[in-house]
């Protein structure tokens, strides 16, 4: 059952959080010359047309990137992320740049990695996989897999360079996905204990999120940072009020950069002053 299509949601507040963390982690990996591997378990279509009927139907980008795109006094990490989205829209000095396209995580990773850094992208849905292939084109050290990313990524670990980032971004359409992600993270960590694993989660039912976080802590995996951005107060399971990321082996700069960015974002993206955020250590180093 694969009904989720990210084109209806691209650029919303959850994408802002996820892609800001992604930019921060990739920028940090690029500070050393040694190659790193980037693996994404749920890649989606790669890049999104915000003028397409699907994006226009819910106009979710208005809860996220639209509020930031033309900002001038942005916190440092928000500016780094917005700069990447502007670049994907052909940002040119002296001309007004219009927001027409939203780069998904594959497009951001392809823009940020160096030629020596391999990328492996998994996408199961045939239609989304075809769009992903078109969006990525042929690039050196890029491999696309039309396969289950939670299973497929394990076979790639540890990467030869022993440096790497795994982005886990399911749509959580089924209740069992939280458990499947937990099992995958345990297997990945056993094979690649020093790798960074970034797991996105939606805040729909608060108790489910807290149970997921507790289960992750109970695995005894060390060094986990939790970041969350909630434009709305917790609801009663009728829709996504916020989202978060759990980052195993986070870059040492991530906690500080997110600590600067998130309170500002909670104000700017918060609905009627009701936004909130958190940056907390779930497990010590
Ligand atoms: N990571 C993308 C981004 O930020 O631009 C968005 C990905 S979207 C939230 C989730 C995608 O995972 C969907 O395109 C869906 O078809 C795909 N998917 C669902 N189950 C999968 C699985 N087991 N393995 C690989 N892809 C899967």
Would you give an account of this structure?
The longest helix is centred in the first third of the chain and has 17 residues, at 13-29. With 285 residues, the protein is α/β, with parallel strands linked by helices. The model has no long low-confidence stretch (mean pLDDT 96). The chain is built from 9 helices and 10 strands. The strands form 2 sheets. The protein has an 8-stranded mixed beta sheet with strand order 5-4-1-6-7-9-8-10, sandwiched between helices. Strands 2-3 form a two-stranded antiparallel ribbon. The chain is globular and about 45 Å long. The protein starts with 12 loop residues before the first helix and ends with a strand. α1 (13-29) crosses α3 (76-88), α1 (13-29) runs parallel beside α4 and α1 (13-29) runs antiparallel to α9 (254-269). It binds S-adenosylmethionine. The site of S-adenosylmethionine (SAM) has 21 residues, from α6. S-adenosylmethionine (SAM) binds next to α6.
Summarize the helix and strand pattern as letters.
HEEHHEHEHEHEHEHEEHE
| Percentage of residues in helical conformation | 25-40%
Number of continuous helical runs: 9
What is the subunit arrangement here?
Answer: single chain
Structural class: alpha/beta
Q: Evaluate the radius of gyration.
A: 18 Å
Distance between the termini: 38 Å
- Which compounds are bound in this model? S-adenosylmethionine
Mean pLDDT: 96
Spatially, the strands of the biggest sheet line up as 5-4-1-6-7-9-8-10
Shape: globular
């Amino acid at each position: 059952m694969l009904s989720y299509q990210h084109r209806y949601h691209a650029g919303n507040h959850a994408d802002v959080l996820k892609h800001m963390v992604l930019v921060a982690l990739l920028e940090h990996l690029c500070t050393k010359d040694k190659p790193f591997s980037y693996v994404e378990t749920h890649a989606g279509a790669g890049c999104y047309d915000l003028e397409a009927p699907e994006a226009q139907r819910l106009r979710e980008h208005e809860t996220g990137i639209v509020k930031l795109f033309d900002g001038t006094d942005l916190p440092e990490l928000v500016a780094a992320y917005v700069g990447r989205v502007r670049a994907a829209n052909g940002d040119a000095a002296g001309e007004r740049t219009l927001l027409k396209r939203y780069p998904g995580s594959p497009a951001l990773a392809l823009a940020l990695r160096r030629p020596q850094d391999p990328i492996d992208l998994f996408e199961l849905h045939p239609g989304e996989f075809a769009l992903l292939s078109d969006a990525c084109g042929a690039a050196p050290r890029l491999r696309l897999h039309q396969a289950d990313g939670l299973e497929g990524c394990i076979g790639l670990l540890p990467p030869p360079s022993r440096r790497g980032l795994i982005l886990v971004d399911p749509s959580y359409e089924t209740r069992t996905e939280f458990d499947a992600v937990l099992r995958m993270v345990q297997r990945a960590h056993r094979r690649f204990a020093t790798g960074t694993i970034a797991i996105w989660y939606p805040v729909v039912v608060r108790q489910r999120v807290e149970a997921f976080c507790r289960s992750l802590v109970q695995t005894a995996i060390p060094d986990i940072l939790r970041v969350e951005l909630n434009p709305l107060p917790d609801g009663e399971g009728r829709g996504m009020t916020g989202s978060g990321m759990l980052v195993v082996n986070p870059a040492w700069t991530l906690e500080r950069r997110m600590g600067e960015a998130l309170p500002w974002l909670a104000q700017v993206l918060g609905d009627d002053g009701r936004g909130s955020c958190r940056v907390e250590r779930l497990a010590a180093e």
